[in-house]
Amino acid sequence: MNHGGKIVHWVEGKPWEGSSERTGPVFDPATGEVSGDVLLASAVDVDQAVDAASRAAVSWRRASLAKRSAVLFRFRELLAERVDEVAAVITAEHGKVLSDAAGEVQRGLEVAEFACGIPHLLKGGFSENASTNLDVYSLRQPLGVVAVISPFNFPAMVPLWFVPIAIACGNTVVLKPSERDPSASLLLAELWAEAGLPDGVFNVVHGDKEAVDQLLRHDDVRAVSFVGSTPVAQYVYETATRNGKRVQALGGAKNHMVVLPDADLDLAADAAVNAGFGSAGERCMAVSALVVVEPVADQLVAKIRERISGLRVGDGRQACDMGPLITRSHRDRVASYLDAGVAAGADLVVDGRKHPIEGAADGFWLGPTLFDRVTPDMSIYTDEIFGPVLSVLRVASYDDALDLVNRNRYGNGTAIFTNDGGAARRYQSEVEVGMVGVNVPIPVPVAFYSFGGWKASLFGDSHAYGADGVHFFTRSKVVTSRWPETGRASQGATNGVSL
Ligand code: NAD
């Protein structure tokens, strides 16, 4: 809710200011100008939002499945009608190009569609006569209040990975979006209200560590779904589990795309450029390490270089291919890796600082950068840069490529490009990564599967959305039941009443 440049919280079905006077600046990354100030909640503000969610949980958990799915269907329709509006809000604060922003809304929408089927998804099991005259059956029940804490890079999609399923399962939600691009979450809140969701079932508190810490320690918050960088994911996981909460904490990534010598190199070059530089590399599934099995590296690097020269970098509203980075400090941090790579001995094939920019001088720009002959000890390989920097690592064999990927501390996504089905099949089986693409560079699972990485890319054992999402947001209960036959019924039966 933009109240004269002030971006406020959303609690109990309406905009809400809380009592904290702390704010943070929100930028238009394409101009470098401040577009608003977002309120940063205090612990007291968080308590009030959680109280509102707790009150709403009493009746929402009892709302019929028919009622809950009707709200979900309506929300899905409203979101589908307003994809462009949500995308425009994302681009204004994040900077990604409009088509990318619309794409992320679409992927979030698919989770809302999945959640429309909640009556089916919550069906339990029933075993008649498990023992003589004894029936056993299972239920899945909501947890209560759940917290969702999301990163800047997908301000609509990541909340939508969790919120529709949490709500469909009968929980109430407090969302703490990234303070760097907070407005998309408020548009989602308006759509929920318009869809007929009762007040207090979905709440948004803006803030930073102070708000997060209060969510992690509040007794009434039963579960936490977190997405962000690995150090914060680990902190959230350890703190919230220590406080007795159920936690799924998705962290950072270093995604490898392996290219075997028999691959279609044009297809691989297109994929590497899209997956490396789309959304300015600020995707948790972006490809940042291109592992090329010799002897095709020279050819592939030449093709990628040629494609990079055709990329239009500029204002995301102006039909460009790539927008700015999220903040000036992040831009400078990413640019510092260009010097670090050169100092470590990598070949700087394309220097993003020299790329032509179609945008305002003060925007947070950095063009696409390509390094070749990168080795596993260099910081441009070991660190998650989270920007438009693609590193080529040359290896001699499939086994060397696999070994490199499996030795990396992260395990979010990976892809293999080849025309050899047997090699692809071996890779999908042997690679220690949660999401694998075969000739698909960004293998984000569709909504009826689940999203999640391995190793330092996920803390906890539950992936996001799909069946894992339904399990995460519910507790199972098993009932063992025996009903003694009343005299009356058995009398009726012996009296020859036909049943
Ligand atoms: P971030 O970790 O800085 O912030 C994520 C959330 O945590 C935000 O809401 C932020 O306000 C909060 N936060 C930040 N510092 C905190 C602290 N010290 N204590 C408590 N809360 C804190 O991440 P980001 O920069 O917003 O997002 C980019 C990161 O997210 C990248 O590392 C990216 O790989 C990762 N990411 C991962 C996935 C995935 O599915 N694995 C998806 C998207 C993004």
TrEMBL record:
EC assignment: 1.2.1.27
Sequence ranges assigned to domain Aldehyde dehydrogenase in this UniProt record: 17-479
Keyword Flavoprotein in record: no
GO molecular function, one term: methylmalonate-semialdehyde dehydrogenase (acylating, NAD) activity
UniProt GO BP: L-valine catabolic process; thymine catabolic process
Entries under InterPro entries matching the protein: Ald_DH/histidinol_DH, Ald_DH_C, Ald_DH_CS_CYS, Ald_DH_N, Aldehyde_DH_dom, MeMal-semiAld_DH
Keyword NAD belongs to the record: yes
Keywords on record: NAD, Oxidoreductase
Matching NCBIfam families: MMSDH
Protein name: methylmalonate-semialdehyde dehydrogenase (CoA acylating)
Encoding gene, per UniProt annotation: mmsA
